[in-house]
């Protein structure tokens, strides 16, 4: 297991910016507004071959434990306290511009009580000329000081080297890369605010890893949680709620929604969590349509099913079945994160969908399936031409993508393409994963020959000569015979008879 480095401190001192700098990724959302980070966010840092786990936490408000009116702030403090307990080295982050505050002193008491190695990181120091003045007040805390600027990069190399030194005693000598655990199945939780995404993650991992509140929008960032369940490793990505674009006002929520949709693209499987009590909204339908168009492997989890009366269950199921007609292959589970109903089916279903996404099929089986599908229902005739299928193959993309080589790809219309996709699902056993069929022209398209209705064959004459005679008012076509048996170009019978008499 990697040594854990936790970033602690009061709100708005730059912990998330420093976290992104340490892991060299723009993973945590940074914003001028305090309290953006609420849940624990995990990343990995590599310094000269030393791999460390870094944890970003929300702003700590020690007074929130004694007052129930703090609400979410109390949950944020509890999350930070859990990160402090599991960490091996603590980075106590303070603001060098504002100087030491009473809240900093209160947090330092909590940090000191842990008895773990502590490094006091004085942030927002933009250069060495500001170092002495900005750090003067913090020497009273009696901790080792590391002046940095997460925004401009000052002192970061020294900080990274010092972190690696402090974490060195906690590195397991026998932990080689070959024995490291597998990356695990990455599952993204997507849905509208307050649908129960965080509650479902907590129920699946069996811990209160995510802050759960009745207030919509509690989760603001995409939080990754790695957990071993039944001997298998899973990476849960809890995302912020996705509201309608017209209802999004501030920049922070726009960034949260962007992160949520991006996380769904990068995950192995996405779980679209819907609220059974609120019914199927337009935003739910938009999310289903978005995931289907993006060819994202996903299934629908209708949460809070325990609150729905039994006499309404049948109508509820029909509603969701009708909404999923645009993607009939998508499975639907009716679950309850509160009671645990049907939660045991969530992870096996995600495993099955992932297995179908990585399936590889031989060329021979593919071409037999293509022949059977096109023979059962031939392509329609388009402009007196019919699409002719030569062969097909599977691309290296995920989810499964099959490439058909035809004489003219424009002859394959969307209706017939959907027919082929449905036939491939039946013949190849792909039931739940998204599937894509691509059509390519294997030969150059031939232009159709022009038919001259008013002109006979040119008989060797060039087109220019014919057009020149037309301009002069002369005929350039061949006269048709006036009587059956006469040769083309022969004059009328009376004219030929008078010529013989003369």
Outline the structure in words:
It is a single chain. This protein is an alpha/beta fold and 502 residues long. It folds into four domains: 4-179, P-loop containing nucleotide triphosphate hydrolases (Rossmann fold, 3-Layer(aba) Sandwich); 185-357, 3-Layer(aba) Sandwich (Rossmann fold); 363-441, 2-Layer Sandwich (GMP Synthetase, Chain A, domain 3), CATH 3.30.300; 463-501, no CATH class. It is built from 14 helices and 17 strands. It has helices at 15-23, 72-86, 102-112, 131-135, 156-167, 197-205, 251-266, 282-293, 313-323, 346-357, 363-376, 414-428, 463-471, 493-501; strands at 4-8, 41-47, 50-56, 89-95, 118-123, 144-147, 185-191, 223-229, 232-238, 269-275, 298-303, 332-334, 381-382, 385-386, 389-394, 401-406, 436-441. The strands form four sheets. The protein has a six-stranded mixed β-sheet, with helices on both faces. A six-stranded mixed β-sheet has the order 8-9-7-10-11-12, with helices on both faces. Strand 11, helix 9 and strand 12 form a beta-alpha-beta unit. Helix 11 (363-376) packs across helix 12 (414-428). Residues 173-181, 211-218, 445-461 and 494-502 have low confidence and may be disordered.
């Amino acid at each position: 297991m990697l040594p854990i480095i936790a970033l602690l401190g009061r709100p708005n001192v730059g912990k998330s910016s420093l976290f992104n700098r340490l892991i060299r990724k723009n993973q945590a959302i940074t914003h001028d507004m305090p309290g953006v980070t609420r849940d624990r966010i995990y990343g990995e840092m590599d310094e000269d071959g030393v791999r460390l786990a870094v944890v970003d936490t929300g702003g700590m408000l020690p007074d929130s434990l004694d007052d129930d009116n703090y609400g979410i702030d109390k949950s944020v403090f509890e999350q930070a306290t859990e990160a402090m307990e599991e960490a091996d080295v603590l980075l106590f982050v303070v603001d060098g511009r504002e100087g030491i505050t009473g809240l900093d002193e209160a947090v330092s008491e909590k940090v000191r009580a842990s008895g773990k190695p502590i490094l006091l990181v004085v942030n927002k120091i933009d250069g060495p000329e500001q170092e002495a003045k900005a750090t003067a007040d913090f020497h009273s805390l009696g901790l080792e000081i590391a002046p940095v600027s997460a925004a401009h990069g000052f002192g970061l190399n020294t900080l990274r080297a010092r972190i690696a030194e402090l974490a060195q005693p906690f590195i397991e000598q026998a932990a080689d890369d070959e024995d490291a655990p597998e990356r695990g199945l990455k599952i993204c939780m997507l849905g509208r605010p307050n649908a129960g995404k965080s509650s479902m993650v907590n129920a699946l991992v069996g811990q209160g890893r995510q802050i759960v509140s009745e207030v919509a929008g509690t989760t603001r960032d995409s939080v990754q949680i790695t957990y071993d369940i039944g001997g298998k490793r899973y990476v849960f990505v809890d995302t912020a709620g996705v509201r309608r674009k017209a209802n999004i006002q501030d920049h922070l929520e726009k960034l949260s929604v962007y992160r949520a949709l991006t996380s769904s693209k990068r995950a192995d499987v996405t779980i679209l969590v819907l609220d059974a009590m609120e019914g199927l909204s337009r935003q739910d339908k938009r999310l289903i349509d978005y995931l289907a168009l993006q060819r994202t492997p996903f299934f629908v989890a209708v949460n809070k099913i325990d609150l729905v009366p039994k006499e309404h269950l049948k109508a509820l199921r029909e509603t969701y079945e009708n909404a999923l007609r645009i993607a009939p292959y998508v499975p639907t589970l009716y679950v309850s994160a509160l009671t645990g109903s049907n939660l045991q089916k969530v992870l096996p279903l995600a495993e099955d969908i992932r297995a179908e996404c990585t399936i590889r099929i031989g060329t021979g089986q593919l071409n037999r399936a293509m022949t059977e599908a096109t023979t059962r229902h031939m392509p329609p005739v388009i402009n007196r031409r019919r699409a002719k299928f030569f062969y097909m193959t599977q691309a290296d993309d995920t989810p499964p993508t099959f490439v058909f080589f035809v004489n003219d790809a424009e002859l394959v219309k969307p209706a017939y393409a959907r027919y082929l996709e449905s036939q491939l699902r039946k013949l190849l056993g792909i039931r739940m994963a998204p599937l894509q069929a691509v059509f390519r022209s294997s030969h150059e398209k031939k232009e159709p020959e022009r038919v001259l209705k008013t002109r006979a064959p040119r008989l060797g004459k060039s087109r220019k000569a014919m057009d020149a005679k037309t301009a002069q008012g002369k005929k350039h076509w061949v006269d048709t015979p006036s009587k059956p048996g006469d040769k083309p170009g022969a004059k009328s019978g009376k004219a030929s008879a008078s010529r013989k008499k003369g």
